[in-house]
């Protein structure tokens, strides 16, 4: 893919105001983001006033690498390209005094947070009673409450035992973080949201600094990440988000698919562009994918992927009676391929779990 297609070009050339880019799998969304940033810079927008936020460090680094040939290393280095958490950390370091941190704080990784939860469990329960609770499951609940902006004193009672255990531990967990001048991973977004909400001068300062905000993988954002986006979006509403509600898979760790489904409610008048040309798979694969998605029964944005690559063999579906029958079928298929002189190194076997 050397040229932008018409939908990609429309997204790249969009002027001011909110825009939602619905990017199907393999539709070149990273290419669109980087080319849009390059187009903004060509229009005279200062690179330092552009922020591009992604879900993972890998995606943020890929964007940064792709920007260099488009705008040069100097300008590329001035663009804020990071994850939500890296962005939040940078804000907290700069605004530490307002956050009551004064630049002196430690960041808990998952191991530190898990150890703190285990310690609280041991103190509250003795011996085997403490060990019967999975500390990771407790920590996951606390993390999800933080992602949903539910404070330690605001968790509703539940009939589910683990929810109640986590609800009891949450306040003590937060107390110990404060005592150690520590922030956990969720705090790197939660605390900036709190600061920007409460400090109008700070909010105006950051909105003036970031004239254009772009967010990748928007379907995987949590409620607190959406709130950060809203707080950073300036009066010109120059917010561009890219995502695909059909690829939202992280609800178990706080992602809220309604963020992308209701984007036009949060930002009225948003331009919506669908990237439906797939450059990765052939048509038979996309026909199956479109059929599965259309019959998923979930609320979604309508789009239909089509292939830029002609041809391709029909997809074969096989129903097996159980796991053992499935394993036998796979082994037989591999044996058949071997008789056809297929190298084992050319065979890939994908499975859902290693159980």
What does this structure look like?
By secondary structure, this protein is an alpha/beta fold. The protein has 2 domains: 180 residues, Rossmann fold, CATH 3.40.50.300; 75 residues, Arc Repressor Mutant, subunit A (Orthogonal Bundle). 49% of the residues lie in helices and 12% in strands. The chain contains 16 helices and 10 strands. A 6-stranded parallel beta sheet has the order 3-2-6-7-1-8. Strands 4-5 form a two-stranded parallel ribbon. Helix 2 packs across helix 3. The longest helix is centred in the middle third of the chain and has 19 residues. The mean pLDDT is 90.
What are its keywords?
two-stranded parallel ribbon; 2 domains; single chain; Arc Repressor Mutant, subunit A; globular; alpha/beta; 16 helices; 6-stranded parallel sheet; Rossmann fold; 355 residues
């Amino acid at each position: 893919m050397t040229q932008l297609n018409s939908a990609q070009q429309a997204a790249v050339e969009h002027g001011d105001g909110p825009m939602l880019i619905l990017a199907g799998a393999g539709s070149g969304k990273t290419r669109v983001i980087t080319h849009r940033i390059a187009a903004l810079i060509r229009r005279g927008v200062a690179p330092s006033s552009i922020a591009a936020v992604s879900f993972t460090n890998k995606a943020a680094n890929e964007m940064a690498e792709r920007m260099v040939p488009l705008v040069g290393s100097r300008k590329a280095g001035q663009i804020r390209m990071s994850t939500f958490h890296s962005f939040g950390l940078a804000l907290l370091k700069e605004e530490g005094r307002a956050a009551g941190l004064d630049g002196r704080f430690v960041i808990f990784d998952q191991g530190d947070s898990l150890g703190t939860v285990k310690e609280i469990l041991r103190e509250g329960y003795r011996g085997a009673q403490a060990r019967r609770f999975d500390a990771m499951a407790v920590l996951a609940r606390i993390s999800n409450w933080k992602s949903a902006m539910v404070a330690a004193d605001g968790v509703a009672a539940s009939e589910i035992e683990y929810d109640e255990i986590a609800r009891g531990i949450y306040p003590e967990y937060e107390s110990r973080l404060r005592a150690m001048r520590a922030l956990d991973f969720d705090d790197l977004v939660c605390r900036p949201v709190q600061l920007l909400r409460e400090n109008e001068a700070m909010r105006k300062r950051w909105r003036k600094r970031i004239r254009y905000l772009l967010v990748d993988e928007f379907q995987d954002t949590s409620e607190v990440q959406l709130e950060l986006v809203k707080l950073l979006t300036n009066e010109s509403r120059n917010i561009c988000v890219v995502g695909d509600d059909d690829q939202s898979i992280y609800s178990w760790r706080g992602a809220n698919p309604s963020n992308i489904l209701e984007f036009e409610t949060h930002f009225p008048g948003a331009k919506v562009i669908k990237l439906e040309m797939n450059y990765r798979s052939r048509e038979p694969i996309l026909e199956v994918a479109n059929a599965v998605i259309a019959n998923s029964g979930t609320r979604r944005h309508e789009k239909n992927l089509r292939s830029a690559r002609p041809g391709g063999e029909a997809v074969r579906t096989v129903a097996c009676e159980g796991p053992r029958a499935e394993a036998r079928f796979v082994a037989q298929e591999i044996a058949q391929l071997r008789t056809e002189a297929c190298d084992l190194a050319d065979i890939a076997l994908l499975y859902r779990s290693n159980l």
